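Re-running the complex after MR caught last week's input typo. The corrected sequence lines follow. Everything else is unchanged.
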Amino acid sequence: MTEALLLLTPGLPLLLALAMVFPGWRAAVVWLAPWAVLPALGLLVLGDLELKLPWLLLGSHFGSDALSRGLLLLSAPLWLLASIYAQSYLAHDPHKHRFFAFFLLAAAGNLGALVAQDAVSFYLFFALMSFAAYALVIHDGRAASLFAGRVYIVLVLVGETFLLGGLLLWASLVGGLEMARVLHPQDWQGQLALVLLFLGFGVKAGVLGLHVWLPLAHPAAPTPASAVLSGAMIKLGVLGWLRFLPPGLDWGPVLIALGLTAAFYGVAAGLLQHNPKTLLAYSSISQMGLITLGVGLGLAVPELWPAAVSAVLFLVLHHGWAKGALFLSTGLKPGPSWAVKALLVLPALSLAAAPLTSGSLAKTQLDALAQTTPWAEPLGLLLSLSSVATTLLMVRFLALVWPQPEAKSARSAGLLVGWLGLVSGSVALAWWPQPAIFLAPEKILAAAWPVLLGTALAWGAYRLGLSKALRLPGWLAPSVPRPGQRVLSRLENHLAALLKATQSLKQTGFDRLAKPPPPPKILPIGWVMVGVLFLGLLLLQVLVLLL
Amino acid sequence: MNEGGLVLLAILLTSLVPGLVIFFLAEASVLLRTVINLAGAVLKLLLVLWTMHQVGQGVIYELRWPFLPGLDLVLRADHLAVFFGLLSAGLWLLTTLYAVGYLEGSPNRSRFFGFFSLCVFSTTGIAFAGNLHTFFIFYELLTITTYPLVVHRGTAAAFQAGRIYLAYTLGGGAVLLLGVVWLSVLAGPVDFTQVGILEAVYTQQPSTLVLVFALLVAGLGVKAALFLLHSWLPIAMVAPAPVSALLHAVAVVKAGAFGVVRVVYDVYGVGLLARLELDLPLALWAAMTILYGSLMALRQDDLKRRLAYSTVSQISYIVLGVALLGPLGTVGGLAHLVHQGLMKITMFMCAGIFSEVHNVKKVSQMAGMGRRMPWTMAAFSLTALGMIGLPPLVGFYSKWYLALGALESPYPAFALVLLASSLLNAAYFLPILYAAWFVAPSAELPRASRPGQETSWMLLLPPMVTSLLVLGMGLLAASPFSPLVWAIRFAQGEHGP
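Corrected-run output:
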């Protein structure tokens, strides 16, 4: 009977979402929404389960294996806590019911994809989540959100097309739909299938070049939706990679390079942001770069694939919990008590991989993997440098959200429960599976210096008077430049040209969507200097390595 | 005459007799007319279901009537026939209900329903025709019986559209006749059971066979709205909504596509076509139509015209699947015969409701429609997502099998056409859904007073049923009731398991 849990995992949120059709039930559905993940939580305490329904779709196969449970450990609690948070956050929103309907649909898609073991079910849930999330992105209906939604939906469609093409080729080559089948590419068709799958999932995972929707969609969506978007939904792209890419594929170096570039690009772009949620979105691009790096390492050293999978999984968990907590903190407007400040700092420290945090555990695992490759030394250094970079970014983030003395604490139980839950989860992750405190002392030291250096850099920038920025009121003034926007506008131009060619733009309803806000001219000088200093340091390190 | 033959005859008579009777009914006898119509439709559906059950058991009904010396009229209920027959019988029932609600209080209803029934009579004849001559007779009959429906409104625009419709379809019919006659001269009466009969001709005059194939496909291609032969279809949109729905989903357009299916599988045969190297030209033609139709649909602001160009594109999915000559392509093409019918009939019925209730005929007027008519819009949205090809809706399976068929064929690039077409489908359907659900309605139009009361139940029920079928048949795609499984069975019979 426990197998029914597999069906209920996507089924319960789906049923609740459908119940929204009846006006009389809507209030009850909102009230029940957090508990839609109960079946998913149930899967966590059970062993491997399997359920085959040959009459459903093209023969459905659901199952929970180690990978499913690993991701459920992040996704199920995150959806639960974000729902509790959303109940308070949207308590007075006129479109509250619409939000929860799509929130539950997205949850159904996300959780369902985790337990799907055949390609068609997986694609179904993946698409359900992607399309439902569109409604979350444009929820508040502001011009910027509509623009973000438009970019989001275009990239979703592009991603879905890659994915469908990849899955079709994959299915015709492996001769079946079971995801347990592995495609070892023999010829260009196999390679093409895997490239398409990589790109299809890459749109979701925000891999460099396909990441443009993230910095727009995250600040546009209501805060609890941003948390699940960045914490849980984009992780589905990683799951796709882990499920479909065969160990021993010779793309290791490409993925490593792509990941590293994203890791530093995300920080550089993030440092220039004024909206804390945009900053966090860029941070996600950066952290997803590290995850890409991890997958690349696993591919590069096939015999370490299982270790790489578990390292990537831990990185995913660590990032999901910490990033979820950080996102929720942007909606709090907390009072200036020391406890609140400490709780703000904790997940930021974790993301920066400070000692004794889950971040240091994740970095240690990644580093251990890197040491087995031919590029051990530069990779180790670059990983530490990425911690320096993330520290800078987190200092910047904290400065943006730091409680003002005069701020009135707007305490609402739901907001606090959601946020505190994620913070404590993020902290607890440092004690599982191996307590971070028991790491060898030299590893703790190795984790310490990048954070110290990063903090020192930020402090230096402040002391040099490079930035009035570190004091809050100064840099709320200029609005947000978006480095991603240039890439974006090119993409938009192509699309607009295509649409214009068919003369349909006027009539399609797209024209009601507003133009993007114009990119402002002013850059915050202080942070440019920090960036320059940082890049200089990076250059120096590379020179040292080369000599 | 055997028992099976009687059943087949009864299937035809269940729409012929009501059609003839209705002509003589007074305009005011609404109730009697409706009862006759619905009784005929229900009876026909039951008979087709029974025949389908028999085919499942391996019993093939046949009715043969010597018409001229050496020329028999044959009705035969094989796999393909019941497949198409069930589609037309099922959708006829729903469309009749819809038409009764749609035309409530309008003039000339006896004429309308009379021809409506005759139109379905011809379509059923096409479905169960057992040789090329019988097929041709019903095919021409369909042209003639649909003309009064297209011009039903009696406006100048309607007559103009009717003229164009007749010019195209009669021209196509003439070309088809030439092909049929030529083929009979070469090989005698072509029964759909004697696939090997053209082999002898092939050894002597292969190039003549190519020419005859071109004639047949060009003749059928007019109704199937293949590229360059499609212009009548968007113009015929002046017809009342139930006519458009039936035209696009089952009757005219499908008759053309079904004819191509028959010619490929039951006249020439897959093997012969491959040897004549006719698969690639046909597939290219279909691919071009798919892309052209989608691009044109993107440009239309008139909702029905957008749907019409979408039909141009989607019908060629069927032709493409058949042209790929492989088992998976066959499955995709045949399944799409039913899938497209269900989806497109829903969309046209919904478009009819929008225009009847709120006088909304353009895509640009769709803002807030989701709040004004939630049920109608839900049905429309579900099928639009199905057209884009999202699982678990039926459109996904068509696309999945068609693309797999392309990948297993010598020309895998056709899979790209399908992917591109889905993207274009998204580009012309998603903005409609966005405007309907996320944009606030303009103030002047009223909202539905109560849920489910947005329009009369006779208009609302049929699209609700078909959209639920779009969802249900997709969810249960692997179960024995789904058209997909029937298509797979046919493909196994045709290509071997």
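None of the earlier attempt is carried over here. The interface with chain A takes residues 295, 298-301, 362-364, 366-367, 389-392, 397, 399-400, 403-404, 407-408, 412, 415-416, 419, 422-423, 426-428, 430-432, 434-435, 438-439, 451, 474-479 of chain B (CB under 8 Å). Residues 156-187 of chain B form the longest helix (32 residues).
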